[in-house]
Amino acid sequence: MPIIDIHIHLSDIDSFHQTAVDLSKVDYTAAGLKAEFDKNDVVLGIGMGVTEQTKGAFPDSTSPNPMGLNLEDRVPPFLMECVGINPNRLDGKHALEELDRIEARLQAPEEAGIKLYAGYYHHYVYDKIYTPIYELAAKYSVPVVIHTGDTYSMNGLLKYAHPLTVDELAYQQRGVNFMICHLGDPWVMDAAEVVAKNPNVYADLSGLVVGDRPHFERFMNEPLFMDHFRRALVYSDHYEKMLFGTDWPLAPIDLYAEFVRRLVPEQHHEKVFYENAFGLFPRIRQRIAAL
Fold first, then answer.
1. InterPro entries from the xrefs (predicted)?
2. 3-class state of residue 34 by DSSP
3. Cα–Cα distance between 281 and 278 in angstroms, integer?
4. Eight-state DSSP code of residue 79
């Protein structure tokens, strides 16, 4: 079965390099990612743009917009990109320049959407600072992907990353589609309700486990851990709005696919692993056709 991995990283972020070496044991390079794609029948990935200006600064308040996949000189042909947004640079004398650069980038065919790092950056997603971003999303018919739940940095603030904040945003911006990353973990029931209530909200199942095979085996064999997510999926009952993502390099793709196959009932696998991506990311069909 072909797979679309809608949540990976390919940026020069110190914590990602460390995780790849110490925890997930993956080759954090474009070549390493392509090898994992080929091994697991992944036909396309979507990378979440993010940058840091100095080692270990993520989330970096000085990073210029748009943030991209800067581990390579360009976006590899087997990937698309969600442009990352640093909201701290959208309020000031250079805000218009920042927005112009974001808009110019969104016109590139490899751009699949926009990524907000809620929690990492200390702004609620419904704050007015993001209004021009949602206007661009509507103009170019691309979704807005939102980090929710636990942050991979102690400098994040969880109140900004709670999935319930997306409910107010979805109500305000009915003309834009949104994706809740990581099913809002640990607030998965709240995320499930936001998805079920709002026709313009989806969720991905990425980043729920970080590490190598021994780590995955420990959690996949813990019923309480697995039921934590299954309960939310059953409650939401919208498998057509759930998407597969790994959050690579936080986990090897084969292990993560095995984990999600255990979570999601088999009759929904084709939707979650492949079909649902086309509904949320309209530009991927043309990208896949060009491969």
1. Amidohydro-rel (IPR006680), Metal_Hydrolase (IPR032466)
2. helix
3. 5
4. E
